[in-house]
Every structure is written in C-alpha cells, then in structure tokens.
Amino acid sequence: MIYIVVALMLSSLAYVELVNMSRRYSVISLFFALIIFVLIAGLRNNVGADWVSYLNFYQDLEEAARLEVGYELINNFFSNLSAPYTIFLLFANFMALSFMFYFIKNNTKLMLLAALLLFCDLYLYYNLSGIRQAIAISITCYSITYVISRQFYKFILAVLLASSFHASALVFILVYYLPARLPSFKYISGVGILFFVAFIFRESIAEFITLYNLKDATYYVKNQQSIISANSYIVGILKRSILVVALALYGRRYLIDGNNYLFVNVYLLGLLIYISTYNISPDIGVRLSSYFTIFEIVIVGGLISSIRAWSSRIVIITTFVCVALYKIIGYMNDDSYNYQLALHNIL
C-alpha cells in the first residue's frame, strides 16, 4: 500500500511541477522526496528479494568477505560497532540516494517526474533489495558530470569507486567514448562489432557480471534459461522503446543541446545491452543495462520541457506516469515486497 501512496503523491507533484515550472518548488519537493525514499528503504524489515542474504553479510563478516571491498568496508564498519542493521540501511541508502538526487537536480527541470520514474522501477529493484548496485548506479550517474566536462581521470576514479560496490559498474566506462551527436556509420559499425564479440564471449561476461554476487554465473546463465519468458522480453523492449518513439516524434528541439544527445546515446546503449543480454539471463539483462537506461528519468523531463504544445506535454507525461504506476502494481504483487517497518530494530 505504501508504494502506491508514494507513487500517487509523486505523480500529483509531477503534474503541479509541469504547470508551475518553478525550480524552487522542484528542489524543495525533491528534498522531501529524498527523505521519504531514505526512510522507506532504511526502515524496512524483511523486505526485498535479497533481504536474507544481505542481513547475513551484516551478521557474518566472513560471508561479507565475498563482497566488493567498498561495500564490505561500510558493512563491516557498522557491524563492528554493533549498530542495528536499520542504522546501516539508513546510511547506505542516504549515500546512494544523495548521489542519485544530485544527478536528478542537475540534469532535468522536471525533478519530481524523475523521482517518480526512479521510485517505480530501479529504486524498488535495487534500494529495497540489491543495495550494492543501487550505490554503484548512483555513483556512475554522478560521474556523468566528468564525461560532460571531459575530465577523464576523475571519471575513471568515480567508476572505480562505483565498482568497489558492484564490479559490473566497470561497464560504464563505455560512456566516456559515446558521441554527443548522431553517431556516424563508422561508429555504429564499431558498436556492432563490439556487440558481436560480446555475444561470442557471453558466458565469460556473465561470470564477470556475477562476480561476488549472491548467486554464481551458472545459476544466472543456465538455471534461469528455463524461466525466460518471451512475453516478458517483448514487454520489456516495448516499455523501453516508449522513450525512443517519443524522441523520434518530439525530440528535435531537445536534441539541439549536445549534452542531451549524449544522454540519449547512453540510454540507447542501455537498450541495446538489454536486447542483447536478456536471453543470457533476464537478471543480467536488467542489471547490466540499468547503468544506462536509468538516464530515462532525466531525458523524459528534458524532452517534455522542450515541447511547446501543452497537449503533447500532457500526453507524454501521462504516458510515463501510467507506465510507472503499472510497474508499481508488479512490485505490489510480489510477496517479497510486502512492506514491514523495523523501528524496533533501532532501539
């Protein structure tokens, strides 16, 4: 119930933001959204598909030694202090969401719409379950500043920091080499060759992605083959293609800015990764592409802001709000996401 309440609240604020277009309103509302997001993720008890595994890492430091060094350090720091697990969750999510909300604040005018799109998808998928990748994705999103300013070494350091929480973040290095314009035929050909090579070595890539993970690559690549649904794959592609269609119809003014073109190319790379890796494993397809498709949350707001016709603005925002609410329903039907408070764990 709490998920739909927050989603409807953010949806209402997003429509008000569209009409108001006041940066002060957006920033203040975004700050309160940040607090709500942190509290929901931090005060949960036995919520999320990976709850048991992460709690075990916190209680058994020998198990935590399996993890990436960045997450292990903060996990062990709070565990050695005998701090309640809830305190650790509040800290970890505050760190992750602070980076993410900084990314939102600096890259879109419709911040509440971005918060809604984040909440209804990757926030629930990662912050309420795979917190390591939530932190990694938030840092890679923050690092886009260094791509725009062409500060290579700062960018690499940021990506390495992200990979210290989830090794798969290293794939984000590809973003530095994306063009901030329409890709040339030569560039597209190079990307095609890269994806072909990746397909040939798909099992090795799967092992890398699942390095230090809660399940090994054999589980992801072989065992999940039996549960891959063609319908889910098609629906996933269609949902991710809505933005592509909107950009094709209304994106001319939005794409005048080179930074916007860069964001779109990042998103398109994520779409290609999703399409090409989902059949290795649904989980790998979603996890690996998330570093790039997350840029949807800022692209949508920028696109709507660039459109002059109010009817088109309303159509686009309503489309994405409906998709967001559809995703919420999916999580609400998942028993592992039945929300329970853990206030007693703080005492």
Classification by helices and strands? mainly alpha
Question: What is the ordering of alpha helices and beta strands?
Answer: HHHHHHHHHHHHHHHHHH
The strand count comes to: 0
Helix share of residues? over 70%
Mean pLDDT: 86
Number of domains: 1
Can you walk me through this structure?
By secondary structure, this protein is mostly helical. It has one domain. It contains 18 helices and no strands. It has helices at residues 2-20, 23-42, 51-59, 61-64, 69-80, 85-107, 111-127, 131-142, 144-148, 152-163, 185-200, 202-209, 217-221, 230-250, 258-277, 282-293, 296-306, 310-332. The longest helix has 23 residues, at 85-107. The radius of gyration is 20 Å and the shape is globular. The two termini are 26 Å apart. Residues 216-227 have low confidence and may be disordered.
Highlighted features:
0% strand, mainly alpha, single chain, 347 residues, globular, 18 helices, 72% helix
